[in-house]
Structure to design on (302 residues):
């Protein structure tokens, strides 16, 4: 049977290109730096930011088949995938890192996934770490009936990176530096590829480990045939690891919200904005620099 690709633009009506808005913030302006916010969080209420950009090409490829993907207990990617399944009427399976009994009662993120119809499949951490091994993946798939389309953790694959290049193209010649928070690296891989020569993309990893550069290079090799664009990583601002925060980060995010009437998502966006503020204060961004900060998520989730 031939499957028909979904017309996502008609079905979901994303707001593209997303707005680019200048903001006045003396922590930047006193150093001669102009701050712009790329409001990818406004693309779609249920699939905001890089979740739309990375999921859309994979939803096209799945063409209505059940979609299986991976994430931790607080995964924004799982939540967006579940929402897409509800909105478009296809099955979703979320492979969740961790023991099911230890995860009960479900946290608000997984509760929303379940409410949107996602079947949650819990696997132990050792299995999850080896999920990309073909034999381990095959064992997981044996527990799921039917023909499913598999999307990697965070939605980051070659299709996603190619799609995220549109984010870079939307920002061509509009900023000198473009900043984005990084989980699995797919957004930065594509963003950098879409920028014009002379623009620099900087990623702020939200996980510890120092593994992301290799992963991004691998994604760019697969998506673009080699390294694409000028990019770098600053891994000083993970605040202890994924979904972890500190009183200082929370205070910063609360202050940024109050200054700019912008809900600051804590897992990704707050860390990126904190990092940019630090770079400005340290003189790492020369006077006259225009910086675009990509707002990839919504809400002040803690």
């Amino acid at each position: 049977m031939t499957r028909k690709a979904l017309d996502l633009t008609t079905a979901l009506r994303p707001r593209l290109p997303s707005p680019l808005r200048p903001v006045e913030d003396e922590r930047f302006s006193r150093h001669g730096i102009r701050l712009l916010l790329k409001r990818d969080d406004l693309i779609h209420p249920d699939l905001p930011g890089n979740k739309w950009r990375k999921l859309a090409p994979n939803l096209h490829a799945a063409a209505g088949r059940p979609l299986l993907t991976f994430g931790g207990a607080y995964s924004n990617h799982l939540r967006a995938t579940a929402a897409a399944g509800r909105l478009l009427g296809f099955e979703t399976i979320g492979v969740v890192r961790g023991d099911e009994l230890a995860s009960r009662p479900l946290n608000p993120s997984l509760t929303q996934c379940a409410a949107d119809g996602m079947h949650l499949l819990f696997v132990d951490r050792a299995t999850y770490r080896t999920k990309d091994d073909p034999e381990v993946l095959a064992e997981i798939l044996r527990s799921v009936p039917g023909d499913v389309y598999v999307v990697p953790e965070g939605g980051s694959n070659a299709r996603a990176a190619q799609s995220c290049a549109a984010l870079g193209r939307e920002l061509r010649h509009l900023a000198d530096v473009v900043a984005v928070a990084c989980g699995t690296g797919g957004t930065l891989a594509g963003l950098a590829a879409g920028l014009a020569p002379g623009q620099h993309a900087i990623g702020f990893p939200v996980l510890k480990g120092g593994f992301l550069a290799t992963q991004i290079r691998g994604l760019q090799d697969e998506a673009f045939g080699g390294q694409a664009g000028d990019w770098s990583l600053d891994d000083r601002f993970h605040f202890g690891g994924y979904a972890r925060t500190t009183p200082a980060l929370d205070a910063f995010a609360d202050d940024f919200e109050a200054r700019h009437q912008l809900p600051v998502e804590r897992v990704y966006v707050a860390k990126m904005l904190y990092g940019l503020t630090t770079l400005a204060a340290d003189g790492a961004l020369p006077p006259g620099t225009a910086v675009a900060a990509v707002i990839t998520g919504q809400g002040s989730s803690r």
Q: What stands out?
A: The first strand starts at residue 20 and ends at 23. The CA atoms of residues 53 and 164 lie 6 Å apart.
